[in-house]
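Re: the request from the purification team.
They wanted to know what the chain is likely to look like in 3D before they choose a buffer screen. I agreed to run a prediction and write the result into the notebook, where they can find it.
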Amino acid sequence: MSVTRPIRLFYLLYISKPQTDRLIYRAIDRSRIASIVELGVGKAQRALRMIEVASRHVPPGQVSYVGVDLFEDRSLGDAAGTGISLKAAYRLLRSRGARARLLPGDPDSALARAANHLAKADLLVVSSGLPVASLARAWYYLPRILHAKSHVFVEKTAGPSGQTTIYRLSLDQVHLLATKAARLRRAA
């Protein structure tokens, strides 16, 4: 084992920026997470770091990452207008040895196509900046891809400074959001 690996892990868990992501990295390390779903890939920086931490306990080839993002279609809903292309994201994630599956589209349409075919996820991360209406409907599919020990983290951007926070949702809260999403679907 390389001497730098424990130092790098310490950096990710306790010193890395943005500070809010440290909660996710610690959950991955503590729970030995191997299956990750992220709604909103952005520039894939957090995805690479999550895979890196997960690879500490699981061989990199057994780390599964599913990313849902608008990719090239950002003009439809990404307020920041920043991110990575589908091709570049796939190359980058595969270079780290993870089994990467990328689903282009907004959360609702991408999960409608793939939720029944996704394996149970140990970790779900919902990024800020996703189209609000699509995310509200997408909660309908999320209980299908979670299990009793899954961790769910939601990132929110608030205030005039654009400060982000991350909070954890219980599975009961996820099921409540799924129920609300089902009502939205029936009303539409």
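For the purification team: The chain has one domain: 4-187.
Please add any questions underneath this entry.
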